[in-house]
Amino acid sequence: MKPSVVAIKQQEIFKFNARAKSIPGVVNMTVGEPNFATPEHIKEAAIQAINENKTHYTVPEGNHELLSAVSKYLQDKYGLNYDPETQIVATTGVTEGVFSAFNAILQSGDEVLIPSPAFTIYGPDADFNGAAPVYIDTSKTDFKVTPQALQEILRTHPRIRIFLLNYPSNPTGVSYTEDELVALAEILKKHDIFVISDEIYSELTYNFKHISFGNILPEQTILLNGLSKSHAMTGWRFGIVCGPKEIVAQINKIHELATTSITSITQFAALEAYKNGYDDPIPMREQYQARRDKLLAGLEELGFECPTPNGAFYLFAKIPDGLEQDDVKFANDLLDKEHLAILPGRFFGVGGEHHLRFSYAASMEDISACLTKLADFVK
């Protein structure tokens, strides 16, 4: 067996969630998934495609009518310019997009720079390719990479081939301003590095417009996005990879080997979303913001310190002094005693210790129950 695969451990978040689901009546604040239904017009488009027997293979990169719609959507929403014929591939979610991009770029001995705390797939994807993940602890800089930290780590790690940037961030909900992105790009453009920019939460931002790194440093950026979070389509497994045509062609080769092509029905659903679903995220985003505000106020009242998320649907809260500081023990005790499931921060890597990740992709009723149970526990 391949040693790099044997060395990969099952992700702790999955094991914790399995334990939480085994407890009757648990209030689950761990799930990074919209609790909204996929919009009706998208579901109807998929049903129509089934009824018209559009159920066969497509070309690996995706139906070209779909890719044209994706290109127009990205232009209209973010001012991005990607040729649908050569610069876009439809993938089985962003998860496959990360996997295929890493496989296309990395060689044994390379390094991948990952701001931490971070979503849990990036490091293992690097390991799988014989590359070493290098983590920047952002917990002391408001969970953002500073230009100074980036410059220093690139100076001391000349084998870095990928800078993985995820914003708005899972697990913190923190995002970047245009000025902050430009400052990072000024450093990155001096290095032979790809920026893999995971922007899956780009439509779920609060009180500001998302700026894509694909606009800031297009010649080095591989953009990942999709419909899972914006259109409540996690189970449809639709993602996109965009970037310079030379590297997208190589990523498509890995994509072909892994999947042949994504499901035809998902592609017809995605086509409808990109053509007629421009405003679908708005009502969801408004509700997320109301939920964020309720949960944030409640946590602060209990003494938890949280950066105010300006995107996604997560709160990353520091456990108050005087309480159990081992976040894994804290979360497990909370689950056992109050039947409240919240993820330990250290599951998300360096800088996550002493924190908890709350997902507010949950109902207001669950948020109220969460705060009540948490108050009982800490008091």
TrEMBL record:
Keyword Magnesium part of the UniProt annotation: no
User: Where is each Aminotransferase class I/classII large domain found?
Assistant: 25-365
Say if the entry is tagged with keyword Transferase.
Answer: yes
GO MF annotation, one: pyridoxal phosphate binding
Print the keywords alphabetically.
Answer: Aminotransferase, Pyridoxal phosphate, Transferase
Gene3D superfamilies recorded for this chain?
A: Aspartate Aminotransferase, domain 1, Type I PLP-dependent aspartate aminotransferase-like (Major domain)
Q: What does this protein need as cofactor?
A: pyridoxal 5'-phosphate
Biological processes annotated in GO: amino acid metabolic process
User: Where are the annotated coiled coils located?
Assistant: none
Which family does the UniProt entry place this protein in? Belongs to the class-I pyridoxal-phosphate-dependent aminotransferase family.
Protein name stated in the entry? Aminotransferase class I/II-fold pyridoxal phosphate-dependent enzyme
Q: Which organism is it from?
A: Companilactobacillus suantsaicola
Q: What is the lineage of its organism?
A: Bacteria, Bacillati, Bacillota, Bacilli, Lactobacillales
